Automatic annotation (TrEMBL):
InterPro entries per UniProt: NLP_P60_dom, Papain-like_cys_pep_sf, Peptidase_C40, SH3-like_bac-type
PROSITE patterns the UniProt entry points to: NLPC_P60 (PS51935)
UniProt entry keywords in alphabetical sequence: Coiled coil, Hydrolase, Protease, Signal, Thiol protease
Full protein name: NlpC/P60 domain-containing protein
Segments forming a coiled coil: 158-186
Domain NlpC/P60: residue ranges: 187-300
Signal peptide range: 1-27
Molecular function per GO: cysteine-type peptidase activity
Family from the record: Belongs to the peptidase C40 family.
GO terms for biological process, alphabetical: proteolysis
Xref: SUPFAM superfamilies: Cysteine proteinases
Length: 300
């Protein structure tokens, strides 16, 4: 007998019985619907002995379990696929499936398919999902290529509208906290620039000069201070208007440079700048808003 005895039969019993009775297996009739008769092992063997028709014994066996992932679906999209509350494009969306996200098919497949993914149950447009044997194959490939200990962990599922809103809010909060940390770190570095620059308050202003001790003009002062920290700046205020990163005045932190029409200074914080003012006042401190601000630039 060439038939493969599948799950549900006792291999030893059948093999022994057939070896003892050298007869040809024969088939019992099925009804018009093709549904297999419900039989036990004894009836199978009895049919084998008494029927005049040849049969395949495997016809009586319990059918093999269907593919483990045949009831799955995968989003076949470039961006995302809405899961809607009703099978219409006008209905409210309740969740999203991103590329290759997994779902379980829980309703008939037509123009729309009812699915469940994560905590979301709803309808997706069938044109944009992979189902059936293709889904089974894709699932097997994902499981095989995954390092997850549990097969189900190889799949990613949808998030509801509420879950997405919560995630985005958390991401925004984390981004703001990170930005604040970076600003604080830069402010610490900028404060070092301010502290260094303030050492030269009272030294002379010299037109065209770049010496922090013997004299500098406004752009020469800023250029020389930043050179001490390894930052190379152009010589004139007009060229400095395009360096670094622009920020608004209300976002200015210590160490930013503030440019005016023909003048530049280093922001100290608290609304003040340290700068080479003029020949009568030398290097000193002015209100940051003493005149119209053209731009604020962040260098470090």
């Amino acid at each position: 007998m060439d038939s493969i005895l599948r799950k549900g039969l006792f291999l030893v019993t059948v093999t022994g019985a057939l070896a003892s009775f050298p007869v040809t297996a024969s088939a019992a009739d099925t009804d018009a619907s093709g549904i297999m008769p419900s039989v036990g092992i004894e009836e199978v063997l009895n049919d084998c002995y008494t029927s005049q028709n040849d049969i395949e014994v495997e016809d009586y066996l319990v059918p093999t379990r269907k593919g483990e992932y045949l009831d799955m679906a995968f989003a076949n999209v470039q961006s995302f696929l809405y899961i809607r509350s009703e099978p219409t494009k006008e209905s409210e969306w309740v969740g999203k499936l991103y590329p290759d996200y997994a779902a379980k098919v829980i309703g008939p497949v037509g123009e729309w398919t009812k699915i469940q993914s994560g905590s979301v149950t709803g309808y997706v447009y069938s044109e944009y999902i992979i189902i059936g044997n293709n889904a089974e194959q894709k699932a097997q490939e994902m499981v095989q290529s995954s390092e997850a200990e549990v097969p189900e962990e190889a799949f990613t599922y949808a998030e509801s509208k509420e879950e997405e809103e919560a995630r985005l809010a958390q991401e925004a909060e984390e981004a703001a906290a990170k930005a604040a940390e970076e600003a604080q770190a830069k402010a610490g570095t900028g404060q070092a620039v301010v502290d260094y620059a303030c050492q030269f308050i009272g030294n002379p202003y010299v037109w065209g000069g770049t010496s922090l001790t013997n004299g500098a003009d406004c752009s020469g002062f800023v250029q020389s201070v930043y050179a001490h920290f390894g930052v190379s700046l152009p010589r004139t205020t007009w060229d400095m208007e395009n360096v670094g990163t622009p920020v608004s005045y209300d976002q200015a932190i210590p160490g930013d440079i503030i440019l005016y029409d023909g003048h530049v200074g280093i922001y100290m914080g608290d609304g003040q700048i340290v700068n080479a003012i003029n020949s009568s006042r030398g290097i000193g401190i002015l209100p940051a808003t003493y005149t119209t601000i053209l731009t604020v630039r962040r260098l470090i």
